[in-house]
């Protein structure tokens, strides 16, 4: 943006003070594409998007005196377009569209794909979740297609700082989609989504929106200028002015125009005085808040120093002699001995944490919940990868193992070694800041029989739930009411392991093939008394 080009605040001020229709037309032409594209993403209806665009600029005309201090109105207009769209859409249409969009995106997610078109309805939600400066940086850079120099000028920073802010905001927006299960490529995915979400408004819409705004706002001269000032008043100020307006007809009858001018002048002077007083109180409140923050920081710093002194004191004081307590449910052991103990981290094929590992690692309730959530995400992602290379096949004679064909289900599962490695790294990386180095190492060793801890581990046992090697998986039903199945694994490399497994522990990719057995077991199992 060159120095000769007025920024939004200057245009708004020209309209609010002088009623400049040229300034208002310039504002509409500058931002109409942003408002129209936002409304279209929210509603999916071009006609409704055009109506909402007009409503937004009508609101801009009415609130012009309040917005004169903004150097750019892009953030305010984006928020107003989103809010206006949500207000205009009827509740039934909104519910049906959300359900259709959610079903479509969920289906695409299950298929492992996420076209950008399917993510566009979520874009504004992601933008509104960002900080104001980050959201404004993305809107200016991509939706309004401004250069980094212009973005920096409008945000009051250098071009290089604007580039870093845009990159940081893109990363946060990418994280928003990744947290919801959409593996958007870092940087480029969010950039492409923002570019695709941009829409050019119809040619005639800028003129229509400007006329609608001007008609609602009116030329800001004389009495209309007074009304523009009145819209910026507080509730108390508005009440005072309304009382004067109610009395105006009587004053006009008594003193004609001269008396009315005196009353209005006094009211405006009172309003101006109250505005200055409000600004003074606001400044004092900001100073008090800053002082409170400084006091809090000093208290925290003092607390840290006290903790350091106590730690130094405890290090010099003799340690108390530990004695065995026969009544205590716990005993102390050296950390080195704890490292040699064989503790199971999970207790079933669903990855449920054992009470033993929770006690050994002294996990709090919040830590246990976070670790369990990470294990659930890992197992879900791995079984989805297995589902891509698994298929149900007819049992051979060697598969039956004394069972009937009707009571046997067989699946061929291909190798998922390539998929396991990044999932395993991601799991341990997410647990590292939560558990720390020592507890994480103990936790990992407790997974040794549940999953391979490295690509060279080839062992197989009945408790293993994560099997990345190619194998043949067999299920045997012993009765129509039995929820416990016989279970066998035959790796392509040879050998076989057999055990039992509950229907609830079966891998996700096998559930469709076992659904008939599950339904029969539920129907024939009597309810608990």
Radius of gyration: 34 Å
Strand content: 5-15%
Number of strands: 5
| Percent helix | 55-70%
Helix/strand-derived class? mainly alpha
Let me know the largest β-sheet: 5 strands, antiparallel
The helix/strand series, from N terminus to C terminus, equals: HHHHHHHHHHHHHHHHEHEHEEEH
What does this structure look like?
- The protein is mainly α and 529 residues long.
- A hairpin with a 7-residue loop joins strand 3 and strand 4.
- The protein has 19 helices and 5 strands.
- It has helices spanning 8-18, 21-43, 46-62, 74-88, 91-110, 116-128, 132-143, 148-155, 159-179, 188-197, 203-217, 222-230, 235-316, 335-340, 355-361, 365-388, 397-400, 417-445, 511-524, and strands at residues 390-393, 408-413, 471-476, 484-491, 497-502.
- Helices cover 64% and strands 6% of the residues.
- The model is unreliable at 219-234 (pLDDT under 50).
- The protein folds into 3 domains: 8-217, no CATH class; 233-313; 338-524, no CATH class.
């Amino acid at each position: 943006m060159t120095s000769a080009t007025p920024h939004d605040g200057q245009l708004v001020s020209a309209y609010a003070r002088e009623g400049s229709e040229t300034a208002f037309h310039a504002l509409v032409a500058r931002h109409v594409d942003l408002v129209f594209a936002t409304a279209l993403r929210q509603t999916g209806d071009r006609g409704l998007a055009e109506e909402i665009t007009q409503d937004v600029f009508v609101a801009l005309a009415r609130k012009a005196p309040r917005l004169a201090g903004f150097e750019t109105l892009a953030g305010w207009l984006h928020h107003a377009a989103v809010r206006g769209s949500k207000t205009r859409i009827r509740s039934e249409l909104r519910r049906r569209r959300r359900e259709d969009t959610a079903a479509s995106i969920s289906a695409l997610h299950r298929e492992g794909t996420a076209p950008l078109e399917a993510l566009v309805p979520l874009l504004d939600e992601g933008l509104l979740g960002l900080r104001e400066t980050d959201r404004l940086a993305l809107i200016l850079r991509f939706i309004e297609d401004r250069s980094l120099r212009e973005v920096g000028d409008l945000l009051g920073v250098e071009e290089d700082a604007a580039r870093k802010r845009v990159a940081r905001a893109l990363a946060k927006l990418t994280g928003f989609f990744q947290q919801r299960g959409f593996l958007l490529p870092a940087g480029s995915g969010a950039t492409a989504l923002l570019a695709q979400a941009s829409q050019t408004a119809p040619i005639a819409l800028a003129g229509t929106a400007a006329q609608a705004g001007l008609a609602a706002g009116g030329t800001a001269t004389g009495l209309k200028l007074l009304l523009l000032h009145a819209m910026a008043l507080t509730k108390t100020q508005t009440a005072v002015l309304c009382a004067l307006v109610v009395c105006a007809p009587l004053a006009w009858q008594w003193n004609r125009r001269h008396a009315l001018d005196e009353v209005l002048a006094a009211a405006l002077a009172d309003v101006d005085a109250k505005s200055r007083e409000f600004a003074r109180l606001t400044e004092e409140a900001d100073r008090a808040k800053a002082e409170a923050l400084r006091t809090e920081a000093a208290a925290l710093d003092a607390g840290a120093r006290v903790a350091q002194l106590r730690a130094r004191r405890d290090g010099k004081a003799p340690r108390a002699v530990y004695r065995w307590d026969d009544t205590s449910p716990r005993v102390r052991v050296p950390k080195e001995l704890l490292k040699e103990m064989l503790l199971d981290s999970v207790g079933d094929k669903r990855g449920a944490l054992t009470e033993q590992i929770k006690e050994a690692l002294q996990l709090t309730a919040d830590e246990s919940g976070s670790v369990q959530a990470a294990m659930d995400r890992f197992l879900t992602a791995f079984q989805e990868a297995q589902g891509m290379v698994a298929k149900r096949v007819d049992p051979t004679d060697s598969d039956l193992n004394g069972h009937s064909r009707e009571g046997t289900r067989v699946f061929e599962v291909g190798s998922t070694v390539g998929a396991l490695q990044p999932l395993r790294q991601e799991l341990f990386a997410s647990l590292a800041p939560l558990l720390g180095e020592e507890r994480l190492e103990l936790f990992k060793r407790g997974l040794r029989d549940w999953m391979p801890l490295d690509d060279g581990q080839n062992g197989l046992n009945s408790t293993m739930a994560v099997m990345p090697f190619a194998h043949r998986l067999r299920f045997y039903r012993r009765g129509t009411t039995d929820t416990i199945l016989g279970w066998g694994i035959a790796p392509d490399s040879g050998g076989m392991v057999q055990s039992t497994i509950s229907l609830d522990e079966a891998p996700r990719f096998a559930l469709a093939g076992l659904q008939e057995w599950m339904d029969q077991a539920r129907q024939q199992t009597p309810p608990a008394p």
